[in-house]
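Hey, quick one: can you model this chain's 3D structure?
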Amino acid sequence: MQSSNPTMKHICLSVIALMLQVSSLPAQSSAIEWQQTFGGDGLDKVIAAVATADNGFCIGGISISGVSGDKTTAPFGDIDSWIIQTDSNGLIEWQIALGGSEGDYITSIAIDKDGGYIVGLNSSSPMSGNKTVPPVGLFDYWIVKINTEGVILWQQVIGGTGPDYLSKIIPAPAGGYLALGRSSSGVSGHKSEPSRGGSDYWLLRLDSLGNPIYDRTIGGSGVEYAVDLIPTPDGGCRIGGYSNSPPSADKTALHYGQMDFWVLGLNSLGAITWQASFGGLQDDNLNCMLALPGNRTLLAGASNSGVSGNKTTTARGGFDFWWVVIEGDGATVQQTSIGGTASEFPTAALLAEDNTLYLAGYSNSPASWEKSVDTYAGSYDYWLVHTSIGGTVYEQFNIGSTGSELLATALLQNDGILLAGYSDGPANGDKTDPPDGDDDYWLVYLNLDPDACTDPPSAPFAGVLEPSAIQLLWEDYAGAESYRVQLKSTGAASGGIYATLTNEIFIDELLPASGYFARVHAKCGPGVWSPWSAPFLFTTPARWSSAAEQDVVLFPNPAEHQLQVLWPAEWSGVDVWLYNTAGALAGSWHNPKGHVLELFIDQPGTYYLVLVHEKGTVRRSVVITG
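Sure thing. Here's the predicted structure for all 626 residues.
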């Protein structure tokens, strides 16, 4: 069940969030395209959500409501999990309750490889309701597989004789699933290793039907709360949460305060390869982990520590957004805090296509420190921040009512972003729907700028094509700040992404006599991207011989204002192109008279001279002194 203490909230989905400024006046934001309030006559709280392949959303939470309001499924017990699927406009397509006669709390939902959903819950119910598997202990992991229509396909209960609480389950890249939570059980049931302390991280590798393949208990002599995990290319994973254990048992990392971030790298068999802890003298609770380029990881959580321990950033208020970037071995790269004079709790983090960071959570701070917008009536509101990884805030967005709104996650879908959380607020501020019960699901869909970047750019084409390189060109796009080019081998599932500020790029890492796919899209503002262009398909020519390169003579080299280029007399229709090392075109000539190039170069340096003729392409380097 969601704790009433916001510091205990540790729900994190990696998501994309667009930050838009909103007036602090209690009037609906013009960025809201639609919003939906879903609930019954009791308490209904969103915990997790995913975007669906048909542009809708699958929302999971907990409910104590009966059949009332929007809820058409009868309750099974004290607390059930309530899953709804909506279309792209937030209209309910189907709903299902999962539960037995006692308490059943959803914590995680993910898209499975077959398009269905793998759902993770914590359960204390016996076989009852639609729970068909008997319990093992006081609380167990309850894994449920449902299809795209909400039909249960299979279910498993996993646990020991004590309480075991699941935090997250995801499909494993090699098949099956990875499930992470915390456990206070000893060796019993599915738990093969003894408890280390009050509660430990408990990780399981499951097969395609949810049966355990192996489990790992990891902890110290105190208390550990597992929160999130990220699979790694070697078949292992990185797991994280927060801990108050000193170095003991499996924990070798230092303990700094009350609770610290504690993150570990595990290999494909679950063995620890490295570990690290981060914190100050007070509470530092990890909420999210995000994979970054270069094998780095971002750890985001809530902190009320000042500069102390290994925390080097100043506290703003009660709790702040605090994130730490680490290398693949746990070494610190940087850390950043943002917030206001009250409290902020992050619940979601995402790396955008331009390598900026989007953090989403909830806040009750007035405009102060990095927070530029007041909350409504001093209550908690959704707060989303667009920032560089280093902490430069670009935009932020506060949305709420005079009640309390707690954000669970945010999802990019179509041309906007869904904010999914729960609210007890009346219809004021940004909220247009009155409450159905004590707390309701509150979904808010923000539209990106409808007039910017709605059309795709023109398809790219080749200016110069060599055996191992290409110059791609496309028409300039109105309003574009920059471009991204996707280039991959024909038939490949993925490839490289290349950034450029102009409508051309030179890519120098191709294979000769190979097929490629290229397309481009434009960036018109922070987080605002056009659709992708139509693809350009091309094949690189076969590599020229070293003898052909020797047939081209450059004189003088280095050159100042003129360069003479000699090539065999049998070459006809020769085009000559000059590029700098960044791939920008610096000059071009067709059959230059006397083979002499007049150079008008402001920036001295190394350049590439490309000769294209009917028999192939030759490239030579030249130093131009200007």
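One thing worth noting: The helical segments are 546-550.
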